[in-house]
């Protein structure tokens, strides 16, 4: 049986393994999770769906290897993206309604590994109505900000162009599809500079904090992409980056240790009394994102 915090830890580990293309390790973790008892049925369905896809897409990894271990000159030496495209198109050839089934999953199920996988598969499938359907859905439905961003990435990968109007609460954000980041490195420099500040302090005061801060910051940035808060971060000077770094450090430290040491955290990042109001605002934004993400699971 897995405790809630333990489950969250494994979910983070799984995400990191997939992003770093350690597919063999991801499969082993999924098999372990499937053996654990006491979880919600939807978790087992998501894990099994992801495991089946990984085993089909990356057979060499299923045998204990990873991308770098694939033998040169063999079919499995194809890039992971090429293999994912081949698999998705083969499913479409078997079932002409496959794109519509993926769309239905994305638009009707909560944010999960399964919906992210469905979006990834749609990136490789043909069908002009897919772009129109996803765009219309984003503009008219209430969609979790993280799912909004992942869908924007899918539209860009599919070659869609133009702008989309997204609603986040009472705020309308206009996003150009062609400029949506596809990798962490594609985000503006200010995004990584916040993490650099956290890394400097975490190394001295709390080494384990950086790993969790990095995960939270990446998810948070995707959730506010294109918003007024996101634009303000990019336009801010060094002091604003210090404020966000301090708020992020405070949020993660509090979650890990269960104690609130705000004055100590503000001291680490040079956040003066006059900056406290902005610090508290950044902290509330991060906390609100975490709370909304937990409620949507």
Name its key features:
disordered N terminus; 4% strand; mainly alpha; globular; single chain; 297 residues; 67% helix
Describe the structure.
This protein is mainly alpha-helical and 297 residues long. The protein contains 15 helices and two strands. It has helices spanning 4-19, 23-35, 41-57, 59-62, 80-94, 98-108, 113-122, 128-140, 145-157, 189-205, 209-224, 228-235, 238-257, 262-268, 276-295, and strands at 163-168, 171-176. A two-stranded antiparallel sheet has the order 1-2. A hairpin with a 2-residue loop joins strand 1 and strand 2. Helix 13 (238-257) packs across helix 15. It is globular. It starts with a helix and ends with a helix.
Quote the distance from N terminus to C terminus. 19 Å
Sequence of secondary-structure elements: HHHHHHHHHEEHHHHHH
Q: What are the low-pLDDT stretches, counting only 5+ consecutive residues below 50?
A: 1-5, 65-78
> Biggest β-sheet: count, sense, barrel?
2 strands, antiparallel
The residue fraction in helices comes out at 55-70%
Taking all Cα atoms into account, the compactness measure Rg is: 20 Å
């Amino acid at each position: 049986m897995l405790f809630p915090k333990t489950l969250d830890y494994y979910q983070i580990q799984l995400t990191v393994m997939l992003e770093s293309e350690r597919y063999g390790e991801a499969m082993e973790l999924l098999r372990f999770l499937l053996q654990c008892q006491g979880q919600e049925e939807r978790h087992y369905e998501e894990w099994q769906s992801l495991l089946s896809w990984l085993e089909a897409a990356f057979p060499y990894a299923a045998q204990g290897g990873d991308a770098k271990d694939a033998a040169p000159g063999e079919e499995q030496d194809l890039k992971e993206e090429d293999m994912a495209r081949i698999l998705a198109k083969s499913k479409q050839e078997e079932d002409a309604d496959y794109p519509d089934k993926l769309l239905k999953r994305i638009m009707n199920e909560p944010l999960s590994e399964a919906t992210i996988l469905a979006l990834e598969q749609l990136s490789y499938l043909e069908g002009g109505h897919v772009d129109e359907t996803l765009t219309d859905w984003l503009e008219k439905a209430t969609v979790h900000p993280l799912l909004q961003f992942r869908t924007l990435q899918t539209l860009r990968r599919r070659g869609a162009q133009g702008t989309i109007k997204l609603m986040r609460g009472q705020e309308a954000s206009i996003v150009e599809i062609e400029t949506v980041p596809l990798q962490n490195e594609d985000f503006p420099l200010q995004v990584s500079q916040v993490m650099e500040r956290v890394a400097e302090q975490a190394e001295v005061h709390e080494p384990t904090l950086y790993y969790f801060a990095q995960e939270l910051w990446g998810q948070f940035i995707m959730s506010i992409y294109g918003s007024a808060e996101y634009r303000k971060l990019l336009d801010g000077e060094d002091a604003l980056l210090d404020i966000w770094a301090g708020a992020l450090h405070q949020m993660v430290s509090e979650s890990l240790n269960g104690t609130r040491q705000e004055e100590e955290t503000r001291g680490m990042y040079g956040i003066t009394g006059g900056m406290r109001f902005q610090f508290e605002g950044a902290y509330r934004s991060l906390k609100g994102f975490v709370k909304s993400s937990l409620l949507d699971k």
